[in-house]
Amino acid sequence: MAVALGGQGYYAAAAAELERLAADPAVPLRVAAHAAVTRAAHLRQLGGHAVARSWDARGLRLAAGALRAGAAPTGPRIGGVSPRWDSTGGVSPRCDGVANGDGPAGCPCDGLDAAAARIDALVGLAADAVGLGDLAGAERLLAAAAAELARLAADPAVPLGVAAHAAVTRAAHLRQLGGHAAARPHDARGLRLATVALRGPTPPHPGAT
After folding, report:
1. Among the residues of the chain, which ranges form H helices?
2. 122 neighbors 145 (Cβ within 8 angstroms)
3. What is the DSSP string of 122-176?
4. Rg value, the chain, Cα
5. I need a labelling partner for 43 at 20 to 30 A (CA). Which of 2, 34, 146, 169 fits?
6. What is the pLDDT of residues 60-100, one digit of tens each?
7. Is the CB of residue 197 less than 8 Å from the CB of residue 116?
8. Domain 2-72+83-199 has CATH 1.10.12
9. C-alpha atoms less than 13 angstroms from C-alpha of 52 in its C-beta half-sphere
10. CB distance 176 to 132 below 8 Å
11. How far apart are CA 188 and CA 176, in angstroms?
């Protein structure tokens, strides 16, 4: 709901919902992490890079907590689905090789994976750094995000939109360095990935660079 509100320009309503999700201890950490990075994205759209940076950092911390909680060994496959432990101490189903939203009943691929939130937070922090003129910091953050994307390239829980965000942030970083020609392929990649993501479920995507 918060994403839809933000997409329609209702930033105040979206902010209230996202801040509630990010702060509510009853909300799984992976969901809270996505709420934080989405709040940061809305702030960036309004030009608030400095404030967005604090929300991206919060998303990164929440994602790290969710990933630590998920380090417990997974159980056996159930109905073609490998369970993944989430921040609530219960089992958060993960659909192997199944497009988002197409998992068995009770086992949705909701795109709210903690690893995806970590990557999105890293890319968001890089975008904040670009907006604030910290190009060296942006380079380090983009390199970290690219490494994570490459490692998780075959994971259907990582949305294509995350890779698209990484590509356009890399393009913005290159333009700040004066590399307008070098930025164009990254812009094109971001547009291509975003277009495919909007069309619906797709096969696993390659990692972004």
Report:
1. 2-7, 11-23, 29-45, 49-69, 114-131, 135-151, 160-176, 180-199
2. yes
3. HHHHHHHHHHTT-HHHHHHHHHHHHHHHHHTTT-TTS-HHHHHHHHHHHHHHHHH
4. 17
5. 146
6. 999 999 988 875 434 332 233 333 333 333 333 333 333 33
7. no
8. no
9. 26
10. no
11. 17
pLDDT, one tens digit per residue, over 20-30 is 999 999 999 99
Stronger pLDDT, 31 or 206, i.e. the higher one: 31
Cα distance between residue 126 and residue 183, in whole Å? 15
Share of the chain above pLDDT 70, in %: 67
pLDDT of residue 77: 29
What's the Cα-to-Cα distance from 70 to each of 56, 63, 76, 115, rounded to whole Å?
21, 10, 15, 10
Query: How is the chain split into domains, by residue range?
Result: 2-72+83-199
CA dihedral 113, 138, 61, 51 (to 10 degrees): -110
Whole-number Å distance between alpha carbons of 145 and 156: 17
State which amino acid sits at residue 139: E
Is the pLDDT confidence value at 157 over 80?
no
Global model pTM greater than 0.85: no
Q: Please report the pLDDT score of residue 71 as a whole number.
A: 57
